[in-house]
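If you are new to this repository, start here. Below is one unmodified record pulled from the training split, so you can see the exact layout before writing a loader.
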Amino acid sequence: MSRIESRFRRLEEKRQAAFIPFIPAGDPDLETTLAVLVGAEEAGADVIELGFPFSDPIADGPTIQDSYHRALTAGVKSNDVFRVAREARQNSSVPIVAMVSYSIVYRLGVEAFLDRAEDCGMDGATIPDLPIEEAEPLLAPAGERDFRIICFATPATTGARRALVARQARGFIYYISVRGITGERTDVPADLCENIRQLKALTPVPVAVGFGISRPEHARAVAAVADGVIVGSAIVKRMRQAVEDGRDAAGAALDFIRSMSAAAKSASR
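And here is the target side for that same chain:
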């Protein structure tokens, strides 16, 4: 059993949802990334999504796009992301999932990417620009290694495609809660509960919800119906504000992770 499944199973026994922060590697610097990765578990993270900076993000809104731009401008490379993950793994048992463009995987080669990801202690990957219909060249070798490729579903995903995602899913399913890009929003979508119910009826694999979750009340509402709560832009925004204010960006991220995780864990399930 992978670290991802083990973590979700423990949380299920407690009737709690996983809290999954997204951390973009290299913004404001790699030292901050390492500090957040190492401190996130104590702050309440159950899985961490670690972003590989990429010049042409598929679904990321301006907050994460700007973060990636700053990291790339500073010279952050894929090698740096693997290195910081390896260093974090020496001091943390929390599952780490790479958020990476398939362009990076393809350039390295599937087997080489999997080798490097496993070598640095990563447990899986979310690849937003790899359609499930074209994913078999990665899904098959990843499955042989017990490395989880996280599949996506959205409000617009057809019933047939949801069934395909449910069959292929391992680790957890990433449910994108809105039609659009990442970013903070004021409300949880009205159709969220019904869409999660339909998806969970197709598979025992946990379903985690991301996009637009930025407040404790959002985390609590999502955790009441889903198996995991994913937060990205709101964390990046607070880190950037801390940098502009001359405060500790890692501390700002961990404080916010702590408050959001506590809200998610307090939900009645």
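Two things worth knowing about this chain: The domain at 3-265 is CATH 3.20.20.70 (TIM Barrel). Confidence is low (pLDDT under 50) at residues 180-186.
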